[in-house]
User: Fold this.
Amino acid sequence: MEPGFLNLHKPAGWTSHDCVAKVRRLLGTKKVGHGGTLDPAATGVLPIALGRATRLLNFLPGDKAYRAVIRFGLTTATDDLEGAVLTATPVPTLTEAAAIAPLPQFLGPLSQIPPQYSAIQVQGQRLYDLARRGQTVAVPARAVTVHRIEPLHWQPGEFPELTVAIACGPGTYIRSIARDWGAVLGVGATLASLVRTHSSGFDLADSLTLDTLEGAIAAGTFTPIAPGVALRHWPALTLGPDVAQRWRQGQKVPIAETALATLAPAPGLDGPGDTVRIVTETGAFLGISAIAFDGETGTHRLHPKMVFIPAG
Assistant:
């Protein structure tokens, strides 16, 4: 099977692992992975890597976007509608203006406490496993970034709802935003609905449902998204045939300053860990590597950070 990526539209009620297992069966391959867990109740973009492209998942863009519905007056054990109700206090007098007022508090760099029911590990155990056993542990806060929150719709009622569009960095829990939003207002809140509209460079409008994928595979028309397309956000470094061959063999190869200059406007190419996309003179994608400065020789060298060599 040709390696690459799949922009899957995850259905409600499926875990991310369920989707991976289904794709494995449809494509008849074991080498399938996903790029960012979605809760079972959530729907939307679930990036899937196929074949050797699983080695490249960590190099996909990290930012994500969601459409979320926050329900006020209700709190649950899981911070969404999947968990047991902890409190239910109608707040029919809550206005749209009052509900939106805390929005600025959830923008920018934040210190966020993930939900008790989450996949984060504490002392080697998943939080959701501990929670299901009735064990409540102190969940360490984590640094996240929210780039944008846009109110979309207000639904008044005993348990009013605010629909928002959220763009954020990796690791952000939208359930935590909903929970904390209600806490700021003093009325409590939980996440009523969540759709991931963008993830790892993939958009919801271009995603495939499992049914559509199955039909395309049966018809022989399914083609994975090429790794070079999915990773085009990295600056490209062109290697000639001889240098490319040495790099593919795992050798550290020197990189001329003139070649580094072609990577502009990417900043900071004078320190370890600078990531680049390796391409041939014809533009074919070879893989991902890192540029580091060799203090002994006073030159920049290219060495494998994550090598991906397409079939053939």
The two ends are 12 Å apart (CA to CA). The CA atoms of residues 277 and 288 lie 5 Å apart.
